[in-house]
Amino acid sequence: MPGKGSGLYCRRWSKVFSGEILDTALTDFSTRAGCLLTTGYTTSFHVQPVNIRQQILQSWAKSYLTPLRQSAKALAAIVTSTWVKTSPTIGPVLGFPRAPVHGKPGKGFDYSFIQFPPGPEPEILETDVVIVGSGCGGGVCAKNLAEAGHRVMVVEKAYHWPPEHLPMTERDAGIQLFANGGIESVDDQSISIIAGQAWGGGGTVNWSASLQTQAYVRKEWADKGLAFFTSSEFQDSLDRVCHRMGVSTEHVEHNMNNKTLSEGARKLGYSHKMVPQNTGGNKHYCGYCTLGCGAAEKQGPVVSFLPDAERSGAQFIEGCEADKVLFENVEGRKVATGVKGRWTSRDSSGGVGGSDRYSRDVIINAKRVIVSDLLELFFSIQRVRRVQDIFRGIVLSVLSL
Ligand SMILES: Cc1cc2nc3c(=O)[nH]c(=O)nc-3n(C[C@H](O)[C@H](O)[C@H](O)COP(=O)(O)OP(=O)(O)OC[C@H]3O[C@@H](n4cnc5c(N)ncnc54)[C@H](O)[C@@H]3O)c2cc1C
């Protein structure tokens, strides 16, 4: 594994595939009987020459046994992703310079995050609405609710990186801007998801493509009883979001790949359209969106909705992972009344790598709780299997806002 960051990457990735399948496969490698069973040799895997190890893994990929196929898939994903993110040669070979050639650095919003002094007791805060997650959903909720006069508090487990830290390297972005080092996967790897984990959530690392929810999807939701999604009110909401972010096709300049694709489509008679981008009505051609926007031009939540929310009095806590939604019984109904989380300070230099950081438990009592990260909800369901608790309290709270 090349590069200094690979160790950290591997530790992160080992979490991704913590599934029993890979664990069992790796344990089997350490015994003769296990090796015979999984590799066909009594020699331990790690002392086999490289070509034999390669052969074994390739045979796993085609095995009739599902666990072996899944292990091969997991190992290939770990190695490929780690190599792509930490290789010092891949950038120069692909002609992808460290920093964008087009565009210039921009200035970010000057956030003031709540800070807590060291102490043994939990910090207890009060608000009207607590929003877990500062991403695309959380940012829009925070703006709308704060502008409507509610006291709003947003808790985000990741940290804010202003434009001068962006775009990060692939390696640093994987650690600081993405969930779980770049990928979340269920134990059998049937589903893998890439998700942002940063101040601004996925909006900090996404590709700027800003499509409105398509008609057939809205209809499907409406057919399931959610009539709001085919209403003109929902259309107005989409338009307002797009307007705030300056979504447009006017300033898009395509790279060579896209030009080739659209020209190919034209020649084949396929219909194709330009995808609008949220670049605030500016031409923005840099190619580094997923590593964070150093120009502060992409109108993700960090540049648009969260500053609007702060200007209307919303308060923010970075570095605070909400680990529990608090419930109370109100007239026979289980209602979410707040969240409990753990906050970790920055170090004395303002970074997140120093040894002088400290943690505090934080309890936020609120009239309403919004968990904006559906992905987290999905994985929580997988992990803790408290489906009913999670859904009853939180979704009801969101819908009753
Ligand atoms: C690389 C990439 C490219 C993409 N490109 C596009 C694109 O071009 N166009 C498009 O429309 N969409 C794109 N997306 C998808 C889009 O960004 C997401 O759909 C969107 O961000 C989801 O919004 P959200 O609010 O549900 O969650 P997110 O934006 O993911 O925000 C959730 C936030 O909650 C935080 N969080 C989670 N759990 C906790 C907890 N327990 N305590 C505190 N905080 C917590 C997370 O750290 C995260 O910051 C892309 C996504 C990625 C990852």
Give a short overview:
With 401 residues, the protein is an alpha/beta fold. It has helices spanning 6-16, 20-28, 32-39, 50-61, 66-86, 90-94, 136-147, 170-176, 202-205, 215-223, 232-244, 256-268, 305-311, 374-384, 387-399; strands at 123-132, 152-155, 184-185, 192-193, 247-248, 277-278, 315-317, 320-330, 333-344, 359-371. Residues 1-18 and 381-401 have low confidence and may be disordered.
Task: Explain this structure.
This protein has 15 helices and 10 strands. By secondary structure, the protein is an alpha/beta fold. It folds into 2 domains: 6-88, no CATH class; 123-208 and 284-400, FAD/NAD(P)-binding domain (3-Layer(bba) Sandwich), CATH 3.50.50. Helix 7 links the parallel strand 1 and strand 2. Helix 1 (6-16) packs antiparallel against helix 5, helix 4 crosses helix 5 and helix 7 (136-147) runs parallel beside helix 13 (305-311). It starts with 5 loop residues before the first helix and ends with a helix. 32% of the residues are buried. The structure holds flavin-adenine dinucleotide. Flavin-adenine dinucleotide is lined by residues 132-138, 155-158, 194-198, 201-203, 205-209, 290, 321-322, 372-374, 376.
Q: What is the CATH C level class of the largest domain, in words?
A: Alpha Beta
Individual helix count: 15
Extended strand count: 10
Low-confidence stretches: 1-18, 381-401
Strand order of the largest sheet: 7-2-1-10-9-8
Could you say what the CATH architecture of the largest domain is?
3-Layer(bba) Sandwich
* Beta-strand percentage range: 15-25%
- The general outline is globular
Query: What is the count of structural domains?
Result: 2
| Class computed from helices, strands and strand pairing | alpha/beta
Oligomer, anyone? single chain
Classify the fold: give the CATH topology of the largest domain: FAD/NAD(P)-binding domain
